[in-house]
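Morning run. Coffee first, then this:
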Amino acid sequence: MDGIFGSTGVWFLIGAILVWFMQAGFAMVETGFTRAKNAGNIIMKNLLDFCLGTIVFILLGAGLLMGEDALFGLIGIPNVGVFTDFANYDWSNFFFNLVFCATTATIVSGAMAERTKFLSYCIYSLVISAVVYPIEAHWAWGGGWLSTAEPLFGTTGYFANVAYIDFAGSSLIHFVGGISSFIGALILGPRWGKYLDKDGNPTLVRREVKYVRAIPGHNLTVGALGCFILWFCWYGFNGAATSDMTQLAQVLVTTTVAAATGTISTMIYTWIKNKKPDVSMTLNGSLAGLVAVTAGCAVVDVVGAFFIGAVAGVLVVVGVEVIDKKLHVDDPVGAIAVHGVNGLWGTLACGLFSTSTGLFYTGSFAQLIVQLIGVVAIAAWTIVCMIGLFQLLKHTVGLRASKLEEIEGLDKHEHGLPSAYADFTPVPLAAEIIEAEGVPALAAEAAGVSVTDMTAPAMPAVAESSEGSAKLSKVVIITKQSKFEDLKQALNAIGVTGLTVTQVLGCGVQKGAGEYYRGVKLDIDLLPKVKVEVVVSKVPVTEVVEAARKALYTGHIGDGKIFVYDVEDVVRVRTGESGYDALQDE
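And here it is:
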């Protein structure tokens, strides 16, 4: 690493900084693929993963990972070098391993999103960063028994000079994160309403599940941006530890090829399977390709990277659907399939596609066997640790939020945040606050609220409407968004200028069009519509209805509906005019 960009290994540190920025990508993916009422909670968890992890990694994790080998290569000896050896401590390696540690921890956040207690998640984050990741990473990257720098079975015999391959962490980071996600989500249970019993009622008991519901995320754009950020940062993730510029270029190319083929593979597979290419699943396909090539990015060629990514793109779809629809383990973002399934695939793929030792290039199974030994050992350690940790949390501080907290949103109950999107949150007016708190009007000033400011002028006495008791009618029109301009022009032409327009979702007797979200059929697809409301008196209702019908008619299902209501009265706020006069243009 010292030879890249100078003797200080600047690229090594730049790559580590890119890995740190992956926290932003994970936060956006997880936030976008879940519901808005939990956005703040997810952001907090991703932020705390790194901050809490930094503290415990300094105190314990760094020694377990980077310390002197002990117990036959199973553990590093904790030390205080980070505190006592300021001049000679290996700061570059420390920072590099720190950001990788945080990445391992944050994978679990998405799989356990929307129903995990914040305190329990923080405890989990502390434990995986302090003990679980440092010990298994020491095996391969810290000089332990599975060291990627040394042959596992020596230099003679069938396994001569065959070392375990995991260049950037398909198994040590992603496979571990995926296993932890699966165990956590399994013990935690699904989100309320995700799975239904035979009577169509929500159930948290896996053996009672008969139906699976899709729960779409609230912001696909944010999720997509998170995927782009992760892809960009992955060049540092895979390329930071390269030894020279030639190897760096090779790693960047294989990383790109695998990600691209993973994306295309997922798109084609979902297109064939569901008749339409699935957007959110295709984004997962990009990440699946990146995860899968991470282990072998420095030892495979372009052909190997192509097949690794292509298989990953299919595996992520199959993995998501099996985990969701067969095993009934609720993973809102697909973390188990992306990181767990494809972390395993990418590690084993090194035994097939390594240009120097892989089965397809040498005809020898030695590398594949070594890879199997490594993933079995890593899986066993992770499973034992995570089952123990999550069961302990479940039976002590509690792992799952209450039903009320989950339904109303963790933002509100865990963080006192009405919404992560303040402009879309109803804010009570001063008068409402006073009424709700029982503050008398005379005491309003003491409460810091001006009664004068919040009280409208008295309605002036007005003469009877110029049209006497003219009838007031409200016409509500629901139709396709594409027909709004035609409707607006038709209403303007007959003298209707006051419109209230709302973007809505809905379906008629046809129950919308059958669609899929992440492989699960939506119960009723709510289609985007536009709702136009007008109140008329001077313009006859029949004329409004007829103009709307002519503007909207195509003869096909989905043209819309028109509803007509009687209106008791209408008042112009500024002048106090009511009835017919309040509707007229001044």
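The radius of gyration is 30 Å. Good start to the day.
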